Amino acid sequence: MRWIYGLLVLAALVAAFRVAIGIRRARSRPRNDWDAQMVRNLRASGANAFTQYEVDFFFSMPDQAACAALIHTLEPEGFKMDARDMSASANASGFSVHATKRLQISVGAMQELSDRFNELAENLSGNYDGWNTDKSRT
Length: 138
Description:
Elements: H1 2-28, H2 33-44, E1 52-61, H3 64-74, E2 80-85, E3 95-104, H4 107-123, E4 127-132
Antiparallel strand pairs: 1-3, 1-4, 2-3
Helix pairs in contact: 2-4
């Protein structure tokens, strides 16, 4: 019976260690000031904080498999996706992926999306290139 308690204590210690590592990793990751600046610029141009805007997100993916995996991940979440093969261009290779979705824009929400998209793109050996919108895209 004591071995069960020992196993439970060990499991709790492992869980606590994983939580501590996750918190440390999240704190060490710098917040993206670019997102905050983009939202400030949007608000300064007269955008309403309570309006949903059509937002474009941009990715560069190394190959068709990574491109398909990204599209497969984001389309079920309501993103409209399109991709373009850049290998036809003389100075480029890979795929350019464009995702669009109507969102209410706030600094926190855009930073969370950027963090998530950076991680998603990295896992697929690609790059997240940021987002853009303007106040006329309601």
